Amino acid sequence: MASLNKVILIGRLGKDPEVTSFENGNKKVSATLATSERYRDRDQNWVEQTDWHNLVVWGNLANDIAEGRRNYSKGDMMYVEGKLRTRQYTDQQGQVRYITEVVADKMMQLAPARPASQSSYGQPYTPAQEPAPGYVPQSSFEAPDEGNDLPF
What we know:
Layout: E1 7-13, E2 18-21, E3 27-40, E4 46-57, H1 59-66, E5 77-90, E6 96-111
Parallel strand pairs: 4-6
Antiparallel strand pairs: 1-3, 1-5, 2-3, 3-4, 5-6
């Protein structure tokens, strides 16, 4: 039976990518990506939940990042495609640890980091950012009124 291991994430880089070079010439790029979602709790208060994802990049994409052909930095809004990998290692105390990473094979910057004066990254939501009371997102497309005066 066939299987599929595919991850697509859109979020902000949590730190500048770190490049590791190996003796054989290969490069590895590591970074973190934050994805967030908002929802209302039982008391109708807005709650933001942020998940952090460990990214690892190898091959030509890692070389492009390491050599500056792709400049990514902390706060950039990114589109990332890859696959999940869980690996184990032994820490300095001798305990076996597990880590899950997204091995990225496609990365694209959607928007650069916002200036600090405009950033709400990591800040709690303020009432100005909440939807109007009674707002309900539309889940279906509504056809425009046929009696409008549009010229086309």
